[in-house]
Amino acid sequence: MEKIPMRDGYGKALLELCAEEDSKVMVLDADVAKSTRTVWIREKYPDKFLDMGISEQDMVGTAAGLALSGMVPFCSTYCVFLAGRAWDQIRTTVCYNNLNVKFGGAHAGISVGPDGATHQALEDTAITRVLPNMTVVVPCDAEETRKATLAVAKVNGPCFLRFGREAVPVVTDESTPFELGKARIVKDGTDVTVFANGAMVYEACNAAEKLAEQGISVRIYDLHTVKPLDVETVVRAAKETGAVVTAEEHQIYGGMGSAVAECLALNCPVPMEMVAVNDSFGQSGQPQELMDHYGLNAAGIEEKILKAISRK
Questions:
Q1: How far apart are the first and last CA of the chain?
Q2: Hey, do 3-169 and 184-310 end up sharing a CATH topology, with the first three levels equal?
Q3: How far is C-alpha 37 from the chain's CA centre?
Q4: Helix/strand/coil percentages in the chain, nearest 5
Q5: 82, 93, 112, 138 from 249: Cα distances, Å
Q6: From 43, 56, 143, 209, active-site residue
């Protein structure tokens, strides 16, 4: 299966948006354009690109001004610095005023690898989804990242996209449906439902294949939109399968798993397990080594599926 970095999908979508007639898109970057792929915009559409230097707060403030002037700005940098350093500007300047600013949080998750804990964004979903007016999207591969970027450009309001650095298997194609706020069914099943996003969608599919050999039927959803959550699908799946597992490359607290748990606690309590980083910071290492160390793989999902089913 072909592997492509999700950031490639982000860059391709920005090229498409900048190429549109009368495009109002502006791309801002915090001195990491090669890493975020916004260098493609700088090279082809230099009048659509602003390098703000290593100044994330200024980048968000500038984007807010551009939005007030009718432009559609995309702020791009490492996820940990975008969601972390500029959180006050995102909260008070952008979200409080419901400004039409888009955020591209690259290099998210533990799979950043050797850069270590300081660069591994594991809290960003939690601190962005809590903000009023914010849409939060975690696509599963390069093609879905492209579609998500194009989709948020059409939303009037703040949107946060989260994607990793490493090349990951491409599990969707041009014909695969994508709709903001609507979970995409990947595989049907009757014994348990797995809600996954990001790189964990591929791992969930591998876990389901292995468990099928034991006669266990796993339903999988790509829950790319964490906010607004697809409450209808989450509740229906819980009622029909009677057990739920969530899988994400994020802290166990406050992320997609917490959003699903909140939904089920209010609407349909069922046995539930979470696959995520268990309340710890990351460390330096090769990406796959780290994913395996923290249980963010098919084996980790299998374990939690069996546990959830045993509690039915």
A1: 35
A2: yes
A3: 17
A4: 45, 20, 35
A5: 17, 28, 11, 10
A6: 56
- Which residue type occupies 297? N
56 is catalytic: yes
- At residue 303, the 3 state secondary structure works out as helix
- Per-residue pLDDT tens over the stretch 84-107: 999 999 999 999 999 999 999 999
* Integer Cα distance of 59 and 212 in angstroms: 48
Domain assignments of the chain as residue spans, ordered by start: 3-169, 184-310
The answer to whether the pTM exceeds 0.90 is yes
Q: Residue 86: which of 31, 124, 118 has the closest Cα?
A: 124
Tell me the C-alpha distance between 270 and 240, whole Å: 11
On whether the CB atoms of residues 129 and 136 are closer than 8 A, the answer is: yes
Q: Where are the alpha helices (DSSP H) in the chain?
A: 6-19, 33-36, 39-44, 56-68, 79-85, 87-88, 124-129, 142-152, 200-212, 231-241, 256-267, 287-293, 298-310
| Contact status, residue 169 vs residue 202, Cβ threshold 8 Å | yes
In terms of Cβ atoms closer than 10 Å to its own Cβ (0-12, 13-18, 19+), residue 174 is exposed
DSSP 32-65: -HHHHTTHHHHHH-GGGEEE--S-HHHHHHHHHH
Kindly report the backbone phi and psi dihedral angles of residue 138, in degrees, each rounded to the nearest multiple of 5, phi listed first: -125, 90
The segments of the chain whose pLDDT lies below 70 read: none
Q: Is 156 exposed, middle or buried (0-12, 13-18, 19+ CB in 10 A)?
A: exposed
How do 225-227 and 25-29 pair as beta strands? Answer: unpaired
Q: Which CATH architecture has domain 3-169?
A: 3-Layer(aba) Sandwich (3.40)
Assign a CATH topology to domain 184-310: Rossmann fold (3.40.50)
Q: Tokens for 194, please give them.
A: 């797995």
Residue 40 Cα to chain centre, angstroms: 22
The 8-class DSSP code of residue 7 comes to H
Q: Tell me which H or E stretch contains 225.
A: strand 225-227
So what's the pLDDT on residue 1?
A: 82
